[in-house]
Amino acid sequence: MIRRLVCAAPLALTVACGSIEPSPSPTPTASADPCATAPSEFGKAIAGSWIPACSLAQDIYNDPSKAMGPPDAGGSGPDQYSGFVSLGFGGHVTVDLGGCIYDVPGPDIRVHQAVSGEEVSLYVSLAREGPYTLVEARKGCGEGSGIRRHCDFDIASGGASRARYVRVEDGELFPCPGGTVSECADLDAVEALNVAAADTEGPPNR
Questions:
Q1: Is 85 in a helix, a strand, or coil?
Q2: Are 113 and 149 spatial neighbours (Cβ–Cβ below 8 Å)?
Q3: Pair 148, 157: CB distance under 8 Å
Q4: What is the Cβ-side half-sphere exposure of residue 178, based on CA atoms within 13 angstroms?
Q5: What is the CB-side half-sphere exposure of residue 6 using CA atoms within 13 A?
Q6: Contacts of 2 by beta carbon, 8 Å cutoff, 6+ apart
């Protein structure tokens, strides 16, 4: 009778009761393959960010989510802009493309910047937690005109053949606090340049 009462306890105690029933199968989880899904043309989610406290104390463009989606920076300075995040002294934002991009001849990633053409460093990875590969350090990002600028990167420059996570880091390295409310590089968007080709032709070199 005592054994029967004990075995009527919750499922967590069935093993102690000598149950020989197999454990329930775990609920299937998403594939561990970071390249199992197709990438987005622009950043789909923010995978991480870091902006130094001395920049946060002064900057007014501090929302990393502004780096998602297509470029949309607008407005006028010094404090009426919209659509970007100021990275601050050595700060960075990492975007998830939702799937892998693959290296093809020419540039693979375009970083859209706002306000000016400050330098940025670009890193890529297949996993959110890294390791991250440096593609190019402190590249000027001044192509374009007006407040919208951009610069292009070839992931093969860092030895990468595919990437899902893209980290954009301030390369201006102007010590904070500075004299503006949008210190250092101002990240508007991250664009995968060869998504359409990969969708129609299949991943190169996979």
A1: strand
A2: yes
A3: no
A4: 19
A5: 10
A6: none
CATH 2.60.120 given to domain 45-201: yes
8 A C-beta contact, residue 136 and residue 90: no
Instruction: Pull the structure tokens for residue 159.
Output: 């030895």
- Report d(CA 167, CA 169) in Å as an integer: 6
Is residue 125 helix, strand or coil? strand
* Bridge partner list, 6: none
> What is the rounded distance in angstroms from the CA atom of residue 132 to the CA atom of residue 90?
16
Identify the sign of the CA torsion 74, 77, 81, 84.
positive
Distance CA 71, CA 111 (A): 9
Q: How far apart are CA 168 and CA 189, in angstroms?
A: 10
Q: Is 0.85 topped by the overall pTM?
A: no
**CA–CA gap between residue 38 and residue 162 (Å, rounded):** 12
Give me the tens of pLDDT residue by residue for the chain, a chain 206 residues long. Answer: 444 333 333 333 333 333 333 334 343 344 589 999 999 999 999 999 999 999 999 999 999 999 999 999 999 988 999 999 999 999 999 999 999 999 999 999 999 999 999 999 999 999 999 999 999 999 999 999 889 999 999 999 999 999 999 999 999 998 888 888 999 999 999 999 988 644 444 455 44
Give the residue extent of every domain in the chain.
45-201
Residue 8 to residues 5, 17, 157, 178, Cα–Cα distance (Å): 5, 9, 63, 68
Reported as half-sphere exposure (CB side, CA atoms, 13 A), residue 32 has a value of 0
